[in-house]
Amino acid sequence: MRxxxxxxxxxxxxxxxxxxxxxxxxxxxxAAVLLVTSAPGWPRVKxxxxxxxxxxxxxxxxLTGFWLNVRIFVVAEVLVLAxxxxxxxxxxxxxxxxxxxxxxAIAYTDLFRGVPTILLIFTVGFxxxxxxxxxxxxxxxxxxxxxxxxSYSAYVAEVYRAGIESVxxxxxxxxxxxxxxxxxxxxxxxxxxxxxxxxxxxxxxxxSLQKDSSLVAVLGPLEAVRQAQIYSxxxxxxxxxxxxxxxxxxxxxPLARLTDYLAARTAQLRGPGGPx
Length: 276
What we know:
Helices cover 82% and strands 0% of the residues. The chain has helices spanning 2-37, 42-49, 52-92, 99-114, 117-131, 140-166, 169-177, 182-212, 224-235, 239-269. The radius of gyration is 25 Å and the shape is flat. The mean pLDDT is 86.
């Protein structure tokens, strides 16, 4: 009986909390809209950034450019996952004979995390073709994607390494006691646990990667931001930038919510009574 009463009180408390949260959100949103629309410069800003005819005219080209952003993001994401994992494993090794490999992994992460991504895109996009090496692609999309992979692999490698180091040493000891080699222990025991723990952090990096795919525009490809820039320059209206922003939001917001869900689920599983 008391348990049913407690459950009823909890449901009532959750209902009250939900109503209060909804009401406060509506009030804050209304106040923000009122503040913006009552500003002296609002009519001019609305004309420059909210022109429906310009939005409708520019949207098809921006959508076509955004498809290029998506392709860059997908290809870069797959490569970043693979390269970042290899770097993390190399940096985590403690075998003396592989110390040069570990040193190279440390140098890689220090170098490419320290250089701004846009400078790296400039360097790769204009420097590699200048070398005139036989068989090396000169397509700006390929080179821009390669620069993104170089940059983000360094960040993702550190995320992987944090996951690897979070696995308790007893897991390795238990695997070794079962006659597993170091490679087998890493493959079957350490990495599965490490990757599962860092999935939310990886998704955060991929949200940033998806947005930074627009930086490839500095090399000339007609992606979404570049298409918006072309239209804005010729029609003296900034609405196309709003259209490009909305497309990016349509992709990043679901990823952000998925990240929150996975982070909450991981915390719940690792809480009291959950698996380590």
